[in-house]
Amino acid sequence: MHKSLSLLTLSFGLLASAVSFADSGQIVFTGSVTDNACTINTNDMTKSVTLDPVRIADFANQVGAKAKPKTFSLTLENCSLATRNNVQIKFSGQPDQVDNTLLGLTGDNQVKGIAIQIDDARTGNKVPLNVATEDYEMRPQSNTFDFVASYVRTTLDVTTGDSPNQVTTSGIGTGKVNALATFDVTYR
Predict the structure, then answer these.
(1) Which residues form the Fimbrial-type adhesion domain (predicted)?
(2) Which end of the chain is more exposed for a tag (fewer CB within 10 A), N or C?
């Protein structure tokens, strides 16, 4: 009897260990697969372009007159041409109230009659806000694209009264100039 009790105890012990309880958990895996041919240089992810001070007298009295152009660059690195060979860059932001192809000024106490125009340095052509550039052909590894930002006049001076009592009021004010643009890179 002792032998059968031991066998029964052993069988029950094995059965109990086979029917053990377990907890469960969850693992979340995240990642991405992109078809981007490059990465944006870390210095260009948040870029600051300081325009030189400008005087009202630096502008001709015509809408679209530019002053104090400033060159800036965007660099793409680690470029592989395995899937894409061209790139387009589009600048977006608050459009100017007079000309929506220009970057408008943001914040309090901004200068009136001024906006920011971005030009493609390779062609000299205006890059309208929210419109992609023409294709840039990419090279392996590093690619730098040059642009020019300029103050641009959006309103004319206003002259009132008759000679000799004419009074001319500038269409441009004085004060701060702040604008914010984002850029998108599209690989083609």
Answers:
(1) 27-187
(2) N
Asked if 178 and 137 count as a contact pair (C-beta separation under 8 A), the reply is no
- Helix ranges (H only) for the chain are 2-18, 42-45
Cα separations (Å) of 188 from 12, 73, 81, 84, 130?
69, 20, 10, 5, 18
User: In whole angstroms, what is the distance from residue 114 CA to residue 184 CA?
Assistant: 24
177 CB-near residues (< 8 Å, 6+ apart): 51, 105, 110, 111, 114, 116, 151
Q: Which structure tokens are listed for 50? A: 């300081």
Write the pLDDT tens digit of every residue in 65-114: 999 999 999 999 988 877 778 999 999 999 999 999 999 999 887 889 99
The whole-angstrom separation of Cα 51 and Cα 150 is 8
